[in-house]
Amino acid sequence: TYGQWFGLELSAENKKQMWIPPGLAHGFLVTSDTAEFLYKTTDYYYPEFERILLWCDPDIGVKWPLELLDSPPLLAAKDEGALTFAKSELPIHDTFSSLTKSASDA
Questions:
Q1: What percent of the chain has a predicted confidence (pLDDT) above 70?
Q2: Sign of CA dihedral 38, 94, 89, 6
């Protein structure tokens, strides 16, 4: 699944949650007037290890539901300078490496 995407609608009504394993990229689009987005993490935040991917990278091809917006998406300042997946410095996280190895051994 490296370099692929998955989308899910999270809302107060559907009460769904999403677990994002360490080292996997993630992003979200708020389609309502307001939203509260909470993270539960397995470790402290280390900004020096953060990588930012271009939200509209054609190689990944996320199908954002932009038709639900009245205007273009508002990006965080750090997202303005994001790189494409192909140009990003993306280390493969130890957890991801072990999952991939385990799956290939099976």
A1: 84
A2: negative
Burial category of 68 from C-beta neighbours within 10 Å (exposed 0-12, middle 13-18, buried 19 and up): exposed
3-state helix, strand and coil shares in percent for the chain, rounded to the nearest 5: 20, 0, 75
**Matching residue, tokens 């009504």:** 13
First-to-last alpha carbon distance for the chain, in angstroms, is 17
Identify the pLDDT of residue 88: 85
What is the chain's mean pLDDT, rounded? 83
- The two structure tokens encoding residue 2: 């490296």
CA distance 85 to 3: 8
List CB contacts of 73: < 8 A, sequence separation 6 or more.
Answer: 29, 55, 64, 66
Q: Which residues pair with 53 in a beta bridge?
A: 83
- Locate all alpha helices (DSSP H) within 1-106, ordered by sequence: 77-80, 94-105
Which portions of the chain are predicted below pLDDT 50?
A: 93-104, 106
